[in-house]
Write a structure and sequence with these properties.
Layout (H helix, E strand, L loop, with lengths): L28 H5 L1 H5 L13 H30 L4 H24 L4 H5 L14 H10 L14 H11 L4 H11 L21 H12 L5 H32 L11 H5 L8 H9 L7
Length: 293
């Protein structure tokens, strides 16, 4: 009896002869991504090994990878603004927003860790804490949330301390945007573009009024208008990430002190409502209201 041929809607898939199988002297997927090194980077310390420590490690390692990409993108945005090109920033900041979304969603995985599970291996962390994340601090500095005291947690690592000090003393993406507006003859006050970059930004009525003018006349300032909205996107996303971080910590350890020595949830709450680009938020109140100085 003749054997019937598989129908076109068969669930089986034939192996195509053109697929490469000989990688003795060729770069393969694992080699390109250095997966051997990547997978060897998870080294739980609990003894006997606690099942949930691997989750904790991978959660934070993948977050650091996403943050590496975010830093890469924000540095490119700054470089574009410095040469008076806002348009490339629209794509860059849209990507940053999606990276922030990934970081936000990752907390849902860590939230499957119960208080008793975390308590079973928390001791092996010693004083290690996300408070010492160079990349997170770099992102906050790139956004303009400058804090000269917090970098002291990296003094034990001279190379990291040098890098973070450089970030502290460099203009943020918002600083560069204001400098761009100043170069383009918008009425940005000189004090906003000639200051100590290591200090927190001091918002001004003059800058808010520039943005108010832009928002009321978007067709005349379309690139600036679009840039303002992209900055609001990432500012909001960063605030949501901080809130999710704080609630995840509260859910897992309550109000215990953090491993890095901070007050934990109380410490994290202090910056949940921080506005990285304050005048872009203030203008939302003044538009449509009685103008006051």
């Amino acid at each position: 009896m003749a054997q019937s041929k598989p129908s076109s809607d068969s669930s089986t898939r034939s192996f195509e002869p053109e697929i490469h199988t000989d990688f003795q002297k060729r770069l393969d997927y694992s080699g390109y991504l250095h997966l051997s090194e990547l997978f060897s980077a998870q080294a739980p310390l609990s003894n006997p090994p606690h099942h949930d420590e691997l989750l904790f490690i991978i959660q934070h390692q993948t977050s650091e990878l996403w943050m590496k990409l975010m830093i890469h993108e924000l540095q490119e945005a700054i470089a574009s603004i410095q040469v008076d090109q806002l348009e490339p920033c629209f794509k860059i900041l849209a990507r940053v927003k999606q990276i922030q979304r990934m970081l936000f969603e990752q907390w849902a995985v860590l939230e499957t860790l119960t208080p008793s599970e975390y308590a079973s291996f928390r001791g092996v962390l010693g004083h290690a804490s996300g408070l010492q994340s160079e990349q997170y601090r770099t992102i906050e500095f790139l956004f303009g949330n400058k804090d000269s005291q917090i970098i002291s947690v990296l003094k034990h690592n001279p190379e990291a301390y040098s890098r973070i000090t450089k970030s502290l003393n460099a203009p943020s993406v918002y600083d560069e945007f204001l400098k761009y507006l100043f170069r383009k003859k918008y009425l940005i006050p000189p004090k906003a573009v000639d200051r100590d970059w290591a200090m927190p930004y001091d918002p001004s009525v003059e800058v808010r009024e520039v943005f108010q003018m832009v928002y009321l006349n978007p067709r005349d300032h379309w690139s600036v208008y679009e840039m303002c909205e992209k900055l609001i996107d990432v500012d909001e996303a960063q605030s949501l990430w901080r809130f999710r971080h704080m609630k995840t910590v509260e859910r897992i350890i309550g109000f215990k002190r953090g491993t890095g020595g901070s007050s934990g949830v109380s410490f994290l709450k202090q910056i949940v409502d921080l506005h990285l680009f304050p005048e872009l938020w203030d203008v939302r109140t003044t538009i449509g209201s009685v103008r006051t100085r």
